[in-house]
Amino acid sequence: MHKASVVIIGAGPAGLCAAIEAAKAGAKVLVLDENLKPGGQLFKQIHKFFGSKEHKAGTRGYEIGVELLKEAEVLNIDVWLNTEVCGIDKEKNIWAVRNGKDAVHIAAERIILATGAIENAVAFPGWTLPGVMGAGAAQTMINIHRVLPGKRVVMLGSGNVGVIVSYQLMQAGADVSAIVEASPTLGGYGVHTAKVRRAGVPFYTSHSISKVIGKEKVEAVEIVALDQQWRPINGTKKVLEADTICLAAGLSPLTELAWIAGCQFHYIPELGGHLPIHNRYMETTAAGIYVAGDITGIEEASTAMEEGMLAGINAAASLGFYSQKEKEQLSAIVWDRLDALRCGYFGQKRKTAKERMISVGKKVIG
Amino acid sequence: MGRIAEHPILGEMKSSKEIEIIVDGKPYSALEGEMIAAALIANGIQTFRYTKHKGPRGIYCGIGRCTDCIMIVNGVPNVRTCITPVQDGMRIETQHGTGVWKRGDDHA
């Protein structure tokens, strides 16, 4: 059996920031991640981040990843890669499989779940054919593995992932034939959307994919216009040339471990559905178990990092590494930065939804 | 399909040792350390398996969660190729159906 004071599950932006803060406070930290490399999805983010200087704005995602790993190394944080967590009980025992074969038991005093999210699928005839993939999958292929999954891409979804990955596909040498958006309005930040538009990519708003043309793989895509109730309009079908279709229809939090650990959930559709209830200190209803990042609701890497810090600070404080006063002060600083990130047209919606969660958390947890 | 040798943000691809993998009995070149799925895409292969209903499948999530890209690797079925690195001489086969695990110590 292994022991650690704070065990963090997930070595993405939230998990690494949680680890760094908890270690800085003096806790013995262990980070577990199922992947072969740490960093979560940061290393495929080659665009510059938003926010202010404290949010590392203007820095590209993978550069932030390098910085966080360096910091974690300096602090001697233990990171176990290729480690899949299979179970957590209420006494905070963790069962995991290392390297696909060794079963390990870890007794944790505090656990921080930073498991992230998965891309949503969209089903239409032919969506299982080779050539249809998540936008994040295409991004992984081009920016991490340096291979181009296709030459001519149709992107479904105009949110930030859709427009950013479209642009990155072009940087990697692909043509983007179109961005198809079911809503009448575009979903991404203006700066990203404008970049793609300037590059000549047509947007089809109030449109969706009706089917894939091709038997063995994607050969073309049929799209159709939608009415105000999002129903296909007869006689509006149109065929676009493509060998690849990328789906950018949002993400869903990876909450399995929070369910297993017995956390109570609350449904907030704007943040991705059923989410572990948490308070402003990122504590869940399961004593000693904290959450941070996309598992608490779909946002961005920058907010995930701040939430990670909150969870790390508060997990350490609950072990006596900070006084009540220090904990409140340190948390307030992070909350100021979070509030600054959750502003503007898109941020305000997330902020309001988050406030609902925090008020539920306050009632249930304290 | 193919490799992205030059990239406006990421620069030139860092050089890696070339190794050989065997896909459905034919030799292909791959780069040491890369994932099987990446090596296949670099070689223009996009169909990795067929379901038991004979539906073709390729990569879908690319990060080891969806299991759409599973293949038979060194005799072991249902290997997630997007998160499994290539090795020199690795035998990779298109999987048909759900795959049959061998018994005992045959696992790689």
Automatic annotation (TrEMBL), chain A:
GO terms for molecular function: oxidoreductase activity. Residues 5-308 form the FAD/NAD(P)-binding domain. The keyword Oxidoreductase applies. InterPro entries: FAD/NAD-bd_sf (IPR036188), FAD/NAD-binding_dom (IPR023753), Metab_Enz_Cyan_OpOx_G3PDH (IPR051691). Keywords: Oxidoreductase. This is Thioredoxin reductase. It comes from Geosporobacter subterraneus DSM 17957.
Automatic annotation (TrEMBL), chain B:
It holds the Pfam family Fer2_4. The keyword DNA damage does not apply. GO terms for molecular function: iron-sulfur cluster binding; oxidoreductase activity. It comes from the Bacteria. Keywords: Oxidoreductase. InterPro entries: 2Fe-2S-bd_N (IPR042204), 2Fe-2S_ferredoxin-like_sf (IPR036010). This is 2Fe-2S iron-sulfur cluster binding domain-containing protein. It comes from Geosporobacter subterraneus DSM 17957. The lineage of its organism: Bacteria, Bacillati, Bacillota, Clostridia, Peptostreptococcales.
